[in-house]
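Suppose you are handed a protein chain with no further information: no name, no annotation, nothing but its sequence. What can you learn? This example shows the usual starting point.
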Amino acid sequence: MIAPDDVYHLPLMNTVTFEPGARSYWHSHDGMLVLGVGGIGYYQEGGKPAQIIRKGDVVEIAPGSKHWHGATPDNWFSQMAIMVDSGYSGAPHSEPVADEHYAGMETEEYVGRVVTADNEFMFQRADEPVTMPTFTGPVYLSSVVAGGNALGAPDMHYVVFEPGVINNWHIHAGGQALIATDGIGYHQIEGQPVEVLYPGDVALCPPGVKHWHGGSADTRFAHIAINTNPEAGGVEWLEPVSQEEYALLTTEKTDEREGGKE
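A reasonable first move is to predict its three-dimensional structure. Written in C-alpha coordinates, the prediction is:
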Protein backbone atom coordinates (compact mmCIF):
# COMPACT_ATOMS: atom_id res chain seq x y z
CA MET A 1 0.00 0.00 0.00
CA ILE A 2 2.75 2.44 0.97
CA ALA A 3 6.46 1.87 0.44
CA PRO A 4 9.18 3.60 2.47
CA ASP A 5 10.69 6.60 0.70
CA ASP A 6 12.56 9.84 1.30
CA VAL A 7 9.49 12.10 1.03
CA TYR A 8 6.93 10.79 3.52
CA HIS A 9 9.22 8.67 5.73
CA LEU A 10 6.49 6.16 6.54
CA PRO A 11 7.11 2.51 7.44
CA LEU A 12 6.23 -0.22 4.97
CA MET A 13 2.45 -0.76 4.87
CA ASN A 14 1.00 -3.69 2.95
CA THR A 15 -2.07 -5.89 2.80
CA VAL A 16 -2.29 -9.68 2.95
CA THR A 17 -5.40 -11.75 2.29
CA PHE A 18 -5.44 -15.34 3.60
CA GLU A 19 -7.75 -17.97 2.16
CA PRO A 20 -9.71 -20.04 4.72
CA GLY A 21 -7.28 -22.10 6.79
CA ALA A 22 -4.21 -20.35 5.38
CA ARG A 23 -1.70 -19.01 7.90
CA SER A 24 1.86 -17.86 8.33
CA TYR A 25 4.58 -19.82 10.07
CA TRP A 26 5.52 -19.10 13.63
CA HIS A 27 7.96 -16.23 13.21
CA SER A 28 9.54 -13.20 14.85
CA HIS A 29 10.76 -9.88 13.51
CA ASP A 30 10.86 -6.19 14.28
CA GLY A 31 7.75 -4.46 15.61
CA MET A 32 4.55 -4.68 13.60
CA LEU A 33 0.93 -3.55 13.72
CA VAL A 34 -1.76 -5.83 12.27
CA LEU A 35 -5.07 -4.14 11.38
CA GLY A 36 -8.00 -6.39 10.58
CA VAL A 37 -9.75 -5.09 7.46
CA GLY A 38 -12.02 -7.99 6.46
CA GLY A 39 -13.06 -11.53 7.26
CA ILE A 40 -12.10 -13.36 10.45
CA GLY A 41 -8.56 -14.35 11.44
CA TYR A 42 -6.29 -15.49 14.23
CA TYR A 43 -3.31 -13.96 15.93
CA GLN A 44 -1.34 -16.02 18.45
CA GLU A 45 1.74 -15.34 20.53
CA GLY A 46 3.76 -18.21 21.91
CA GLY A 47 2.25 -19.67 25.10
CA LYS A 48 -1.03 -17.71 24.82
CA PRO A 49 -4.50 -18.49 23.45
CA ALA A 50 -5.10 -17.55 19.82
CA GLN A 51 -6.93 -14.24 19.49
CA ILE A 52 -9.87 -14.07 17.07
CA ILE A 53 -9.32 -10.96 14.93
CA ARG A 54 -12.14 -9.14 13.17
CA LYS A 55 -12.52 -6.04 11.03
CA GLY A 56 -11.36 -2.97 12.94
CA ASP A 57 -9.11 -4.77 15.40
CA VAL A 58 -5.59 -3.35 15.81
CA VAL A 59 -2.92 -5.70 17.17
CA GLU A 60 0.44 -4.40 18.37
CA ILE A 61 3.23 -6.97 18.02
CA ALA A 62 6.32 -6.32 20.12
CA PRO A 63 9.78 -6.66 18.52
CA GLY A 64 11.05 -10.24 18.77
CA SER A 65 7.68 -11.71 19.78
CA LYS A 66 7.18 -15.28 18.54
CA HIS A 67 3.78 -15.35 16.82
CA TRP A 68 1.73 -16.35 13.80
CA HIS A 69 -1.39 -15.00 12.11
CA GLY A 70 -3.81 -16.09 9.42
CA ALA A 71 -7.40 -17.05 8.64
CA THR A 72 -9.88 -19.17 10.57
CA PRO A 73 -10.79 -22.55 9.01
CA ASP A 74 -14.03 -21.32 7.44
CA ASN A 75 -13.33 -17.66 6.69
CA TRP A 76 -10.92 -15.64 4.59
CA PHE A 77 -9.04 -12.91 6.43
CA SER A 78 -7.53 -9.67 5.16
CA GLN A 79 -5.09 -7.58 7.17
CA MET A 80 -3.07 -4.42 6.80
CA ALA A 81 0.42 -4.83 8.21
CA ILE A 82 2.63 -1.92 9.26
CA MET A 83 6.29 -2.84 9.69
CA VAL A 84 7.97 -0.59 12.25
CA ASP A 85 11.73 -0.21 12.49
CA SER A 86 12.25 -0.24 16.24
CA GLY A 87 15.88 -1.33 16.16
CA TYR A 88 15.31 -5.03 16.86
CA SER A 89 18.33 -7.06 15.78
CA GLY A 90 17.52 -10.54 17.07
CA ALA A 91 17.74 -13.65 14.92
CA PRO A 92 14.50 -14.36 13.01
CA HIS A 93 12.44 -17.39 14.01
CA SER A 94 10.41 -19.53 11.62
CA GLU A 95 8.63 -22.87 11.87
CA PRO A 96 5.28 -24.21 10.61
CA VAL A 97 2.09 -23.99 12.64
CA ALA A 98 1.27 -27.71 12.89
CA ASP A 99 -2.14 -28.83 11.68
CA GLU A 100 -2.75 -30.48 15.06
CA HIS A 101 -2.04 -27.22 16.87
CA TYR A 102 -4.23 -25.19 14.51
CA ALA A 103 -7.16 -27.60 14.87
CA GLY A 104 -7.05 -27.94 18.64
CA MET A 105 -5.72 -24.66 20.01
CA GLU A 106 -7.49 -22.55 22.63
CA THR A 107 -9.09 -19.44 21.13
CA GLU A 108 -10.71 -16.28 22.49
CA GLU A 109 -12.06 -13.02 21.10
CA TYR A 110 -9.40 -10.33 20.81
CA VAL A 111 -8.98 -8.76 24.23
CA GLY A 112 -8.02 -5.35 22.80
CA ARG A 113 -11.14 -4.87 20.68
CA VAL A 114 -12.69 -1.38 20.70
CA VAL A 115 -15.09 -1.76 17.77
CA THR A 116 -18.72 -1.96 18.90
CA ALA A 117 -21.34 -4.26 17.39
CA ASP A 118 -23.35 -1.35 15.97
CA ASN A 119 -20.38 0.30 14.23
CA GLU A 120 -20.96 0.53 10.45
CA PHE A 121 -17.40 1.38 9.43
CA MET A 122 -14.11 -0.45 9.07
CA PHE A 123 -12.75 1.10 12.26
CA GLN A 124 -14.55 2.54 15.24
CA ARG A 125 -16.28 5.81 14.47
CA ALA A 126 -16.23 8.49 17.16
CA ASP A 127 -19.41 8.65 19.25
CA GLU A 128 -20.22 12.26 18.45
CA PRO A 129 -19.54 14.48 15.43
CA VAL A 130 -17.64 17.74 15.58
CA THR A 131 -18.19 20.86 13.50
CA MET A 132 -15.29 23.08 12.46
CA PRO A 133 -15.13 26.18 10.28
CA THR A 134 -12.69 24.41 7.98
CA PHE A 135 -15.20 21.63 7.11
CA THR A 136 -18.50 22.09 5.31
CA GLY A 137 -20.40 19.93 7.82
CA PRO A 138 -20.03 17.43 10.68
CA VAL A 139 -17.20 14.89 10.82
CA TYR A 140 -16.33 12.15 13.28
CA LEU A 141 -12.72 12.07 14.50
CA SER A 142 -11.18 9.08 16.27
CA SER A 143 -7.87 7.23 16.33
CA VAL A 144 -6.79 3.92 14.79
CA VAL A 145 -3.24 4.12 16.13
CA ALA A 146 -2.43 6.69 18.79
CA GLY A 147 0.71 8.78 18.59
CA GLY A 148 3.44 8.01 21.08
CA ASN A 149 2.74 4.26 20.95
CA ALA A 150 5.36 1.82 22.18
CA LEU A 151 6.37 0.76 18.67
CA GLY A 152 6.92 4.27 17.36
CA ALA A 153 4.31 3.76 14.62
CA PRO A 154 2.81 6.89 13.05
CA ASP A 155 -0.31 8.49 14.50
CA MET A 156 -3.26 7.32 12.37
CA HIS A 157 -6.48 9.36 12.67
CA TYR A 158 -9.85 8.04 11.53
CA VAL A 159 -12.13 10.56 9.86
CA VAL A 160 -15.75 9.86 8.89
CA PHE A 161 -17.44 12.45 6.65
CA GLU A 162 -21.20 12.79 6.39
CA PRO A 163 -22.48 12.87 2.75
CA GLY A 164 -21.36 16.00 0.95
CA VAL A 165 -18.91 17.07 3.66
CA ILE A 166 -15.41 18.11 2.59
CA ASN A 167 -12.65 20.22 4.08
CA ASN A 168 -11.09 23.48 2.88
CA TRP A 169 -7.96 23.71 0.84
CA HIS A 170 -5.04 23.31 3.24
CA ILE A 171 -1.31 22.63 3.47
CA HIS A 172 0.48 20.12 5.70
CA ALA A 173 4.06 21.19 6.27
CA GLY A 174 5.13 17.54 6.44
CA GLY A 175 2.70 16.10 3.89
CA GLN A 176 -0.16 13.66 4.36
CA ALA A 177 -1.20 10.11 3.46
CA LEU A 178 -4.85 9.06 3.19
CA ILE A 179 -6.13 5.45 3.12
CA ALA A 180 -9.80 5.19 2.09
CA THR A 181 -11.79 2.61 4.07
CA ASP A 182 -15.52 3.21 3.50
CA GLY A 183 -17.81 4.87 0.98
CA ILE A 184 -16.64 7.06 -1.91
CA GLY A 185 -14.64 10.24 -1.51
CA TYR A 186 -12.32 12.69 -3.20
CA HIS A 187 -8.79 14.02 -2.93
CA GLN A 188 -7.29 16.80 -5.01
CA ILE A 189 -3.86 18.37 -5.14
CA GLU A 190 -3.89 21.92 -6.49
CA GLY A 191 -3.45 21.95 -10.26
CA GLN A 192 -4.18 18.22 -10.62
CA PRO A 193 -7.37 16.26 -11.44
CA VAL A 194 -9.65 15.18 -8.61
CA GLU A 195 -8.93 11.62 -7.43
CA VAL A 196 -12.02 9.49 -6.74
CA LEU A 197 -11.28 7.30 -3.72
CA TYR A 198 -12.79 3.88 -3.12
CA PRO A 199 -11.99 1.62 -0.13
CA GLY A 200 -8.37 0.52 -0.32
CA ASP A 201 -7.19 3.50 -2.35
CA VAL A 202 -4.21 5.49 -1.09
CA ALA A 203 -3.75 9.22 -1.76
CA LEU A 204 -0.49 11.02 -1.03
CA CYS A 205 0.07 14.76 -0.79
CA PRO A 206 3.71 15.93 -0.61
CA PRO A 207 4.95 18.30 2.10
CA GLY A 208 3.98 21.93 1.62
CA VAL A 209 1.49 21.22 -1.18
CA LYS A 210 -2.08 22.54 -1.22
CA HIS A 211 -4.89 19.96 -1.29
CA TRP A 212 -8.41 19.09 -0.07
CA HIS A 213 -10.35 15.89 0.57
CA GLY A 214 -13.72 14.65 1.75
CA GLY A 215 -16.84 12.71 0.87
CA SER A 216 -19.00 12.44 -2.21
CA ALA A 217 -22.47 13.98 -2.22
CA ASP A 218 -24.46 10.80 -1.61
CA THR A 219 -22.35 8.53 0.59
CA ARG A 220 -20.66 8.64 3.93
CA PHE A 221 -16.90 8.44 3.45
CA ALA A 222 -14.15 7.42 5.82
CA HIS A 223 -10.38 7.41 5.62
CA ILE A 224 -7.30 6.95 7.75
CA ALA A 225 -5.24 10.15 7.77
CA ILE A 226 -1.52 10.14 8.56
CA ASN A 227 0.26 13.46 8.89
CA THR A 228 3.72 12.57 7.65
CA ASN A 229 6.95 14.12 8.90
CA PRO A 230 5.16 15.54 11.98
CA GLU A 231 8.31 17.29 13.14
CA ALA A 232 7.95 19.66 10.15
CA GLY A 233 4.95 21.42 11.67
CA GLY A 234 1.18 21.48 11.50
CA VAL A 235 -1.54 22.42 9.03
CA GLU A 236 -2.33 25.76 7.40
CA TRP A 237 -6.02 26.14 6.55
CA LEU A 238 -6.97 28.11 3.44
CA GLU A 239 -10.10 29.00 1.42
CA PRO A 240 -13.11 26.71 0.88
CA VAL A 241 -13.41 24.53 -2.20
CA SER A 242 -15.69 25.95 -4.89
CA GLN A 243 -19.13 24.43 -4.34
CA GLU A 244 -19.89 24.95 -8.01
CA GLU A 245 -16.92 22.78 -8.97
CA TYR A 246 -17.75 20.22 -6.27
CA ALA A 247 -21.29 19.88 -7.62
CA LEU A 248 -19.89 18.80 -11.00
CA LEU A 249 -17.90 15.87 -9.56
CA THR A 250 -18.98 12.27 -10.20
CA THR A 251 -18.15 9.04 -8.40
CA GLU A 252 -17.06 7.34 -11.60
CA LYS A 253 -13.46 6.25 -11.23
CA THR A 254 -11.26 7.00 -14.24
CA ASP A 255 -7.60 6.51 -15.01
CA GLU A 256 -6.26 9.87 -16.14
CA ARG A 257 -3.12 8.25 -17.48
CA GLU A 258 -5.09 6.13 -19.93
CA GLY A 259 -7.94 8.56 -20.47
CA GLY A 260 -10.58 5.92 -19.70
CA LYS A 261 -12.21 3.86 -17.03
CA GLU A 262 -10.13 1.73 -14.70
